[in-house]
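Worked example 3 (structure in, sequence out).
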């Protein structure tokens, strides 16, 4: 599921409302700042986010069938101190990844009302990260060397992608 492109949402019904409520609950318990439906085994183009900026303004919402416009990505190496990402699908690990500092994302909410957000910095990073999940990509799939090799070794060592393994929100330890 995590490496497949998610399908467009076509039915805005109670099942979708339940899914979004479950996603918020899972994200909050993890704890995380974003969660895409494919991360919980649902192949739909939906993600939730929750981010408090430097002024403690909380930005929380859902984007359904999002479209992402991405600014320029600098060519310099990613910085461990300012650009290290983690992911609920690769719990407990962090690696630096270069992302665009500006994005614009559009989509709809649960009421099918248009949503348009421009973001910079970490808020922009969250949208890029979650959008990648909808296209079947994990952040570790985008890493440059030597971090790509390090991440691959960790994923193999932990046995991710093998049947029978599970992970519960709020725990960084792999349990089978």
């Amino acid at each position: 599921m995590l490496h497949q492109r998610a399908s467009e949402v076509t039915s805005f019904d109670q099942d979708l409302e339940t899914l979004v409520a479950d996603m918020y609950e899972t994200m909050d318990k993890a704890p995380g700042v974003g969660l895409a439906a494919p991360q919980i085994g649902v192949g739909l183009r939906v993600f939730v986010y929750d981010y408090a900026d430097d002024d403690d303004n909380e930005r929380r919402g859902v984007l359904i069938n999002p479209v992402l416009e991405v600014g320029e990505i600098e060519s310099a190496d990613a910085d461990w101190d300012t650009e290290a990402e983690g992911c609920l699908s690769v719990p407990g690990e962090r690696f630096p990844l270069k992302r665009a500092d500006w994005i614009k994302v559009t989509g709809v909410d649960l009421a099918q009302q248009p949503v348009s957000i421009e973001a910079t910095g970490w808020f922009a990073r969250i949208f890029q990260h979650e959008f990648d999940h909808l296209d079947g990509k994990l952040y570790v799939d985008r890493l440059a060397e030597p971090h790509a090799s390090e991440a691959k070794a960790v994923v193999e060592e932990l046995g991710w992608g093998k049947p029978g393994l599970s992970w519960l929100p709020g725990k960084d330890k792999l349990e089978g």
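Notes: Helices lie at 14-29, 80-83, 121-134, 147-158. The chain is about 25% helix and 25% strand.
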